[in-house]
Design goal:
globular, Rossmann fold, about 45% helix, alpha/beta, 5-stranded parallel beta sheet, 7 strands, two-stranded antiparallel sheet, single chain
Length: about 270
Amino acid sequence: MPTTPRHLIFHVGTHKTGTTSIQTMMQDNRDYFLEQGILFPRAGQVRNGGQHNIAWELNGDEGFDPTLGTLRDLEAEILDSPVPDTLLTSEDFEFWYDAPDKLHQIADVAQRVGATVDVVLVLRPVRDYVESLFKELLKHGLTQTREEFVAQLVRDGHYEFRERTYRFDYPAMVRGFSDVFGADRVWVVKYNIVESNQPFFDVVGRLVGRSVRSIPNWGRKNQRNGTARATVRHPISAVRRLREPGKLKPHEASALAKLFPAELNSLIRLP
């Protein structure tokens, strides 16, 4: 067991809560955050993003590439780090809330490196999430109309797309992470659409016990420099629907509210 106290911040998304902006900022400014005592691991990192390869490894996902770094590589990198705090991030970790076997593998790594774990779960109102997710999936080949998309979600209680199951039962999500890491180690943050990532790093700072600074105006700089994210080629059928309004109609919003009645504000828990 290492003698240096270590700390793992396990940022599990969710999707459509600004994760990519946080991940690209940390990747492009790795030394900046290392100077602030935060390791952003190379092990498992995929393109301009987080440690998705770790999620894919444990999921048995076909996208897993061992040359990008494995869970074992992550463990070695944390042990070799000159700083005690590590931030591990992937929105694909959100799919694990009902897969304790996968979460226990993260907990086991933390135990072996002598780290305590804090889980950071960022949520947005279900209606907003559904609207944003619909528009995002259009970019990745979804051919359903919004009405069809919402009808399927309401019918099934979740949404399956390309071997991913998107779920919207936030209380169950919180319980799933709490069952493995402890309710006192799971922090629930409400997502707000702002240009700065500083609110997220304010949470990180409270967890590590010191100020952690983001890059001011990162979103606008990134967009202006053309490095925010790669252009996605859309199927012709989806291009037409990118212009389709993503806003839910009142009866669709009502159906979602009945299916997922929990008030988001009741779940918020900040350090």
